[in-house]
């Protein structure tokens, strides 16, 4: 180390090369400040003997140094303008280049003493200092000892040089002693004390902001500006930026700059930076710098809506977007509805727009809306936007209004279709089954009507449809039954073309070609009601008449389904009186049958009493029309019915209330079948009330046939032997006779 130090101090060429390498070393960042010039000594000692020369070299950040150089000796400007000067006088020297500021002063001393203490130059913060004790005649000295503030520095006895850290200098004074050999012996020599000059490694940094007065929301660049001398350009520095006492960014960084993407008004604070070596040997901080952020007031506030146009359907989502063209910093957006004090929503954020979402809009959300924006300079309002909410129609309700309880052909009914909800106008369509009847518009919403004149074909299902352009809705189906009045019935007598005689059974058939069921038919003989029969499903009905006496006369029928009675034309009947013997046989049979059936009828009446009820007037309890027989009396005579040439003797049949039950066995023709014919005739009104199964539609005469057995003419003996058994069978058949048939004449 000693040899190296001596070589560096004496070899100027080597020193210049070393200095050049330091100046050209990379990694040094230049700031906007003009760096200080730097003075380099060759040899690098601040104390020298008289008569020796020292070369001063002025350097700046440029290599080589450009332009004129100014030199100062004890603050006096020298005439020298070159980059190097040689000096031999003690004093303070400074220099300045065109691209730098004035260098720190360098004190160079020339001594006439025999022993001097030399210190290496330059010495920067954190550097090691070389101290060398030197005599005029180096070969005559020995026992070199170094002192700091009068105290010996141990461990360095008789060393040509020692090394100490500049951080431990603390303005201390150093000197050395040595033994000088002379002609008269050795003597001790002491050097004059020196103070070591320590230069700044780098000046305190200066914080700059670009731009210096930033607009809120804009980026800002901070620079921590300092510089290293050319000799120390290889040293690495690191930087940290602070707002008040809070570190910015990621902390320490090798970059002397920091980019703030966006600065806000609340960031108007004091900023400063700090620089240090990566070894942490030297650390310096800048002065605080105040940065004031400029705020731009909001302007051009606009309200937009999604979906565009402001027309929504109930249930859709509404988005209100409030935006500003200009404005910085934190902006407070608020949304309002005209006519209400309450703020719908308020949002504060750093952006030029904000949105409010109203999910599932309702009819009550319709109205005029506006928004406001404010960044402390006062709210600015947008223009008003109208929001309309259209409501799809609800499911309509169809009602049918008729002039009577039961609609009749020819009536005019009103079909009314009404949707309780839905934006107008609403178009209503009316349907019968799947056929369109017509349409009606409701400009103000709610309901619409359609009048329909009924025909027989208008019975069926009716429905309606409501549509306001947002989707059609169908009503439930409504059933309408149109009642058709009966037409004039036609009476026919069966069998036709034969000669009726007493004891025959004559079928009277009455039929109306038109009329809604059920239809009640009455049968008459010379204005006397014979009986009635019900056609529950429409069509005709029959009535069987047993010819007991001379039935010649006028016959007609009446039909009624609750909408009025229609009477047929009169049919004239003439018949032939049978022989006396046949009348006697018939009379005996009838009397015998009456005695048997009387018992059975009484029993059946008691059973039926608890099973049926009778109601009178208009429609029966089962919906069967009823009317008085007197309603259809006295029709005109027409269509005479003649079966023989003999004019019968006219006799009036007994009134129904005076008739008694008659029983007789009938064997018509040679068919081999024997029937029992039963005439069940209601005698009094009291008996009618006591028989629950004798409905009002079954008043009067009822004829029932029951097959007893087959007759075999060739087997009269066996027929006689089985008379008792047949009689038992007959009783069983009688017991099965119903008290009233479901339809008269069956």
UniProtKB/TrEMBL annotation:
> Which top-level group of life is the source organism from?
Eukaryota
- Which organism does this record belong to? Equus przewalskii (Przewalski's horse)
Keyword list, A-Z? Disulfide bond, Immunoglobulin domain, Membrane, Signal, Transmembrane, Transmembrane helix
Q: Where are the transmembrane segments?
A: 583-607
Residue ranges of region Disordered? 630-656, 709-746
Record SMART domains: IG, IGc2
Q: Answer yes or no on keyword Disulfide bond.
A: yes
Task: Establish whether keyword Signal is in the entry.
Answer: yes
Q: Which residues form the Ig-like domain?
A: 35-111, 203-288, 297-388, 396-481, 489-576
What Pfam family is a match for this entry?
A: Ig_2
Q: Which InterPro entries match?
A: Ig-like_dom (IPR007110), Ig-like_dom_sf (IPR036179), Ig-like_fold (IPR013783), Ig_Fc_receptor (IPR050488), Ig_sub (IPR003599), Ig_sub2 (IPR003598), Immunoglobulin_dom (IPR013151)
**Which protein are we looking at?**
Fc receptor-like protein 3 isoform X1
Which PANTHER family does the UniProt entry name for this protein?
A: FC RECEPTOR-LIKE PROTEIN 3 (PTHR11481:SF93), IMMUNOGLOBULIN FC RECEPTOR (PTHR11481)
Q: Where is the composition biased (Basic and acidic residues)?
A: 722-734
Could you say which residues form the signal peptide?
Answer: 1-29
């Amino acid at each position: 180390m000693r040899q190296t130090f001596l070589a560096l101090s004496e070899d100027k060429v080597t020193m210049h090369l070393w200095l050049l390498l330091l100046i050209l070393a990379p990694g040094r960042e230049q700031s906007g400040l003009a760096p200080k010039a730097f003075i380099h000594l060759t040899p690098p000692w601040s104390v020298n003997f008289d008569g020796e020369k020292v070369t001063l070299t002025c350097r700046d950040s440029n290599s080589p140094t450009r332009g004129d150089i100014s030199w100062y000796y004890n603050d006096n400007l020298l005439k020298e303008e070159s980059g190097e000067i040689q000096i031999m006088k003690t004093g303070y020297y400074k220099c300045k280049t065109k691209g730098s500021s004035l260098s720190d002063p360098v004190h160079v001393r020339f001594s006439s003493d025999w022993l001097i203490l030399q210190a290496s130059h330059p010495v920067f913060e954190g550097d090691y200092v070389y101290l060398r004790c030197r005599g005029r005649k180096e070969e005559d000295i020995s026992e070199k000892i170094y002192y700091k503030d009068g105290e010996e520095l141990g461990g360095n006895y008789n060393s040509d040089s020692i090394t100490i850290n500049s951080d431990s200098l603390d303005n201390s004074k150093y000197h050395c002693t040595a033994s000088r050999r002379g002609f008269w012996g050795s003597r001790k020599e002491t050097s004059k004390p020196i103070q070591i000059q320590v230069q700044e490694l780098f000046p305190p940094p200066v914080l700059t902001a670009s731009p210096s007065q930033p607009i809120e929301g804009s980026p800002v660049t901070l620079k921590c500006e300092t510089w290293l001398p050319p000799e120390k350009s290889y040293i690495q520095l690191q930087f940290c930026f602070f707002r008040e006492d809070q570190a910015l960014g990621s902390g320490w960084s090798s970059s002397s700059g920091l980019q703030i993407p966006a600065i806000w008004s609340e960031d108007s604070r004091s900023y400063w930076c700090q620089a240090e070596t990566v070894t942490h040997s030297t650390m310096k901080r800048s002065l605080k710098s105040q940065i004031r952020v400029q705020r731009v007031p909001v302007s051009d506030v606009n309200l937009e809506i999604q979906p565009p146009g402001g027309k929504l359907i109930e249930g859709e989502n509404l988005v209100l977007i409030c935006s500003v063209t200009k404005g910085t910093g934190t902006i407070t957006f608020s949304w309002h509805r005209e006519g209400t004090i309450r703020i719908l929503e308020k949002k504060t954020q750093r952006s030029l727009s904000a949105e409010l979402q109203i999910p599932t809009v309702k009819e009550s959300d319709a109205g005029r809306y506006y928004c406001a924006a404010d960044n402390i300079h006062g709210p600015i309002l947008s223009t008003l936007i109208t929001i309309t909410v259209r409501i799809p129609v609800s499911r309509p309700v169809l009602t049918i209004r008729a002039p009577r309880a039961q609609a009749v052909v020819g009536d005019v009914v009103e079909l009314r279709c009404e949707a309780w909800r839905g934006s107008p106008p609403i178009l209503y369509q009316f349907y019968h089954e799947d056929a369109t009847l017509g349409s009606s518009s409701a400009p103000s919403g709610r309901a619409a009507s359609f009048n329909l004149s009924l025909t027989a074909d208008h019975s069926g299902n009716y429905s309606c449809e409501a549509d306001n352009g947002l989707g059609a809705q169908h009503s439930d189906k409504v059933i309408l039954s149109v009642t058709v009045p009966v037409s004039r019935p036609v009476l026919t007598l069966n069998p036709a073309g034969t000669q009726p005689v007493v004891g025959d059974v004559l079928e009277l058939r009455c039929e109306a070609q038109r009329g809604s069921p059920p239809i009640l038919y009455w049968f008459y003989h010379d204005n006397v009601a014979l009986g009635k029969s019900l056609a529950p499903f429409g069509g005709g009905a029959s009535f069987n008449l047993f010819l007991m006496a001379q039935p010649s006369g006028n016959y007609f029928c009446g039909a009624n389904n609750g909408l009025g009675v229609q009477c047929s034309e009169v049919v004239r009947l003439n018949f032939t009186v049978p022989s006396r013997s046949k009348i006697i046989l018939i009379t005996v049979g009838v009397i015998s049958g009456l005695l048997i059936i009387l018992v059975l009828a009484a029993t059946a009446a008691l059973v039926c009493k608890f099973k049926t009820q009778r109601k009178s007037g208009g429609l029966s309890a089962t919906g069967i029309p009823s009317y008085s027989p007197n309603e259809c009396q006295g029709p005109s005579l027409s269509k005479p019915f003649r079966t023989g040439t003999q004019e019968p003797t006219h006799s009036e049949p007994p009134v129904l209330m005076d008739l008694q039950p008659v029983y007789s066995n009938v064997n018509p023709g040679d068919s081999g079948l024997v029937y029992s014919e039963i005439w069940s005739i209601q005698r009094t009104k009291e008996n009618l009330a006591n028989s629950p199964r004798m409905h009002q539609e079954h008043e009067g005469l009822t004829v029932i046939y029951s097959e007893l057995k087959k007759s075999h003419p060739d087997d009269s003996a066996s027929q006689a032997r089985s008379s008792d058994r047949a009689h038992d069978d007959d009783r069983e058949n009688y017991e099965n006779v119903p008290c009233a048939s479901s339809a008269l004449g069956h």
